[in-house]
Each structure stands twice: as C-alpha cells, then as structure tokens.
Automatic annotation (TrEMBL):
It comes from Plakobranchus ocellatus. This is Multiple epidermal growth factor-like domains 10. Residues 424-434 have a biased composition (Low complexity). Residues 405-477 are annotated as: Disordered. GO terms for molecular function: scavenger receptor activity. SMART domains: EGF. Keywords: EGF-like domain, Membrane, Signal, Transmembrane, Transmembrane helix. Residues 448-457 have a biased composition (Basic and acidic residues). Residues 229-266, 281-311, 326-356 form the EGF-like domain. The chain crosses the membrane at residues 372-396. Residues 1-28 form the signal peptide. InterPro entries: EGF, Galactose-bd-like_sf, MEGF10/SREC1/2-like. Residues 458-469 have a biased composition (Polar residues).
Length: 477
C-alpha cells in the first residue's frame, strides 16, 4: 500500500494526548462478524489501516469489512485480550466522495454496545446522525469505569450491509507486570523494578532504571555511557577499544586493562599488587613492596640494590641508594660493601671503616697510636733530664771559677803585704816614716789599682761567664 498506516496512529500515540486517550487497544485483537462477504474479513477493521479515500475496490477488500447483502442480522465484534478502561472509539466509514450514493450510508443508525466480562453490557451508543459520516467519534461517559473486554457494532434494520474500514478503541489496559506497548510487547525499565510502567508510554513513576533514558525509559544509554540518566562514562581502562561497558552497571564488558580493578576498571590496583585484574603481587625485593600498577616494576629499590625488580646488587666500585655512590678511593681496589660503602680492605697507609684515617709512615702495626704517645712522653722526659743536667753542669762550673778568683785575689793581697813590709824595714827614720807612709800608701794604693786592673783584664779573658757563653754558642752552632 502506498500510504503509511503509522501516520494515522503515531500522532495521537506520541503526543501528550496519548496519556489521556490511551492507546489503541483494538489493534490486532480477535474479531468476528455475523458472516463474511467474499474476502472482506472482520479483522480488516483492526489492522490499524483505515484505508485512503476513493481507493479502488481491490484495495478496499483488503482494509474494510463487509457482511453479505440483505441479511437481517449484520454485526461485527472485537474481543480484547486484556480488559481496558475505554475512553473513546473512532469508527472509519467507507470514504468515497466520488460515489456519494453508494456505501457510506450503510452505517447510518448503527448501534455500538460495550460489555464487561464478555456478556455484561455497560454502555450502548446509537448513531443519531441522519446522514452518513466519514468518521464517527464515540465518547464513553466518564462515569463508565468498568473494564471493557467486548465491543459489538450492529447495523440498523434499515441498512442492508454492515461495512467498517477501521475501529480504533482508545483505552488503557493493564499489561502483564513489567510490560508495556500496544501489544504489551516491551519491557518496562523502571528504577523500581517491582513497579509497573505506564502501559501506554512505558514511563515510570520512579523514573528510569540505570542504563535507560527517554520518556518511555526504553532508549538504552549510548555507547560509552551508563547509569541513571546515562550520566556516567565507561572507564577508559576497559579492555579493548575502551568505552564498552554494561549500560546499567558500568562493568567493562571485556574486562579491564592490566593495572586496574575490575569490574569498573576506574581505579588502579591496590598497593603492592599489579597486572591483569591486580592478581600479581609486587616483588618482595621492591622497597616497601611497592611497584607500578601495570608493569610490576618496583617504585624504588632498597639501598644497595638496582634493576627494575631490585634483584641486582650494585656493580663493583659502587654502593648506596640507587647504587649512585662511588666506593672510597682509599678502599683496597676501591671495593666496598654495596649497601654501607664500608671498605673490604684499605690501601697501604689507611685505616678505618671507610679507610678515611691516614697512618704515619714511621709507625706501623695495629697499636701505632700507643707507641706514638709513649714515644712522645719518654722523649719529653729525656729532654727535660738532659736540659737539667746541662744546667746543673754549668752552674757547677761557674761556682768553681768564682772560688779560683777569690784565691787569686788572696794571693795578690799576700804579695802586696809582703812588699809593704819589706819597704817599711828599708826606710828606718821615724819623721820621714810619719810623712812617707801616706805617700807610700798612696803609691801602694795606686800600684794595687794597676795590679787589680791588670788582674781584671786577664780575668776578662778567662772569665767563667764568657766561657759559658762560648760553650752555649758552640753547642748551638
Ligand atoms: C464467529 O461468529 C460465527 C457466527 O455467529 C460463529 O459461528 C463462530 O463460532 C464465531 N467465531 C468465533 C471464533 O467466535
Ligand atoms: C452515567 O451518567 C449518566 C448521566 O450523565 C447516567 O445516565 C448513567 O446512568 C450513569 N451511568 C452509571 C453507570 O453511573
Ligand atoms: C563491546 O563488548 C561486547 C561484548 O564483549 C561486544 O559484543 C561488542 O562488540 C563490543 N563493542 C565494541 C564497540 O567493541
Ligand atoms: C599475593 O600475596 C598474598 C598474601 O600477601 C597471597 O595470599 C597470594 O597468594 C599472593 N598471590 C600470588 C599470585 O603470589
Ligand atoms: C664516581 O666516579 C666517577 C669516575 O670514576 C665520576 O665521574 C662520578 O662523578 C663519581 N660519582 C660520584 C657520586 O662521586
Ligand atoms: C681483606 O680483608 C679480609 C679480612 O677482613 C681478608 O680475609 C682478605 O684476605 C683481605 N684481602 C686482601 C686482598 O687483603
């Protein structure tokens, strides 16, 4: 057929009216009629297609019903699988403006009956119009609230034939729990899973379940998003092309990249673990057992170790954190402990853990320090003794020289007295002797002074002090 049958149904279904008017509960339901003329079957009136005006007979036979002509009893009936609260009924007549004298007037004065539980009539409508209508609109009074499951349309006694091109019955039915749609064929996606959605719209009082959006809660989140209102984003660490996760839970469909915690894959592996699903333990050789969440490479190594997994000790000549320190050049062969840097042995002339102490060349051996101290003490004592002896010697010599001088002095006095004595005995006279003694004494005193002077000159040459000075000068020369 050239036309689009949905164009007739869609506008009321998708508009806000839908909720007030309900959905077409007649669509595809069971039908029957008093008898069928040719192939104008009863179900043609619930196929959702009212046909288009002035269609050729060949098309009408496929979209309208027709009871055999001139039968006293002409009726059509529809039985709803789910009883519905019916608000309004639309009946499409044959619409043939080019054939005004035929056909459309067969519906004049029809009767419509609504039943609950198949047989209990709750509502009757009789067409009051004197002329044929293209579309009849039957409004069910608001005080009719019983669920209706059967509707029967009968021709008037005056009409030879009952013909219907479409019967829309707008109402609201209760779909089975968790279903909605014209045929209750769709699953509700309500946030509250116990709750039933609106049968006509699929909307939910509690809002849409995680993973679904739209007025009908029927549109899944677009790829890469999930959750309530689809406002969350799949982890970029989902394995594969990323952005592929469950629309409701966000669990990555293909698992996580190595280094992330399943199933959301948002967070890095917990401390001390790494790899696919964080199932691997970091090497115990890593400092504090910490490693890279993807590769397992240690974050840091303990002192004295190196390598991605801290499984190598420092190379020769190196030690310390990161093995970036050189062993001391005073270590023998520059070899030291890879952790502490303590020398294995020292080079000659060095000692201490790091061979940082220099040993004096004269002293050797383990107790060189003690020898040095003893040597210093003994040397000092000896020096003091020697100096003392020297001092004592010179003091002694000085004293001896002085006593020799005194003797010389005594000897000279003795000689002088002897000369004076001999001079007195030679003069003999008392007068002269009274005068002379003074001159003699004066001359004697003068002579003594000359003697003394001579004596002191010779003393100057052989003086004990000057010889001491010479001695000291000679010693220190
Ligand atoms: C349809 O109506 C005819 C005539 O009354 C009846 O014989 C037939 O059993 C009915 N079919 C169904 C499925 O009810
Ligand atoms: C519905 O209301 C109409 C009048 O508006 C009345 O005639 C009819 O009896 C009422 N039907 C029921 C079932 O109450
Ligand atoms: C997302 O994952 C599912 C399940 O593994 C797979 O069938 C689908 O092809 C993936 N989509 C993309 C875009 O990779
Ligand atoms: C990782 O360590 C835990 C305990 O620390 C142990 O139970 C588990 O078996 C280890 N896993 C592997 C793969 O070695
Ligand atoms: C270690 O020695 C090398 C040369 O042997 C030198 O280039 C380097 O700077 C030294 N490193 C340190 C930390 O002293
Ligand atoms: C280094 O010292 C150790 C003892 O501390 C000794 O056994 C070893 O022979 C020494 N090595 C050399 C080369 O002197």
């Amino acid at each position: 057929m050239a036309h689009d049958k949905s164009s007739i149904l869609q506008p009321p279904l998708l508009s806000g009216f839908l909720f007030l008017l309900g959905r077409n509960v007649a669509l595809g339901q069971s039908t029957n009629q008093s008898d069928t003329f040719q192939n104008w079957y009863s179900h043609n009136a619930v196929d959702g297609d009212p046909g288009i005006p002035d269609s050729p007979i060949s098309e009408l036979t496929q979209t309208c019903t027709h009871t055999p002509p001139d039968t006293p009893d002409g009726w059509w009936t529809v039985m709803l699988s789910n009883a519905a609260a019916v608000f309004r009924i639309l009946i499409y007549n044959r619409r043939e403006p080019s054939r005004p004298v035929c056909c459309a007037d067969r519906l004049i004065g029809f009767t419509l009956e609504a039943f609950k539980q198949t047989t209990t009539k709750v509502f009757t409508y009789t067409d009051p119009n004197p002329t044929a209508q293209s579309i009849y609109t039957v409004i069910v009074p608001a005080n009719i609230t019983d669920p209706i499951d059967t509707i029967k349309i009968s021709k008037s006694d005056a009409s030879p034939i009952l013909t219907l091109c479409e019967v829309f019955i707008f109402g609201e039915t209760a779909c089975p729990s968790g279903k909605f749609g014209l045929e209750c064929e769709r699953d509700c996606n309500c946030a509250d899973r116990q709750e039933n959605c609106f049968v006509s719209t699929g909307g939910c009082p509690s809002g849409c379940a995680a993973g679904y959006t739209g007025e009908d809660c029927y549109t899944p989140c677009s790829e890469g998003s999930y959750g309530v209102d689809c406002d969350r984003t799949c982890s970029e660490h989902c394995k594969g092309n990323g952005n592929n996760c469950s629309i409701d839970t966000g669990h990555c469909t293909g698992g996580c990249e190595a280094g992330y915690i399943p199933p959301l894959c948002d967070d890095q592996c917990p401390e001390k673990t790494f790899g696919q699903d964080c199932k691997e333990n970091c090497s115990s050789a890593c400092l504090d057992g910490l490693c890279h969440h993807k590769t397992g490479v240690c974050d840091r190594c303990p002192i004295g170790y190196i390598g991605d997994f801290c499984d190598q000790v420092c190379s020769l000549y190196m030690f310390g954190e990161g093995c970036n320190q050189n062993c001391s050049i005073h270590c023998l062969d520059q070899l030291c402990n890879h952790q502490t840097g303590i020398c294995d042995n020292c080079t000659m002339g060095r000692k201490g853990e790091y061979c940082e102490v220099e040993i004096f060349a004269a002293q050797s051996g383990e107790d060189g320090d003690d020898t040095a101290v003893i040597g210093a003490v003994v040397g000092t004592i000896l020096g003091v003794i020697i100096v003392t002896i020297i001092v004592i010697f010179f003091v002694w010599r000085h004293r001896r020289n002085r006593s020799e001088d005194n003797q010389n002095l005594k000897q000279s006095w003795t000689k002088k007295r002897n000369r004076e004595t001999s001079a007195k005995t030679k003069s003999g006279s008392s007068s002269a002797s009274t005068l002379r003694p003074a001159a003699e004494a004066k001359a004697g005193r003068l002579g003594q002074r000359k003697e003394e002077h001579k004596q002191s000159d010779s003393e100057a040459q052989s003086s004990p002090m000057s010889s001491t000075r010479l001695e000291i000068a000679r010693r220190f020369r």
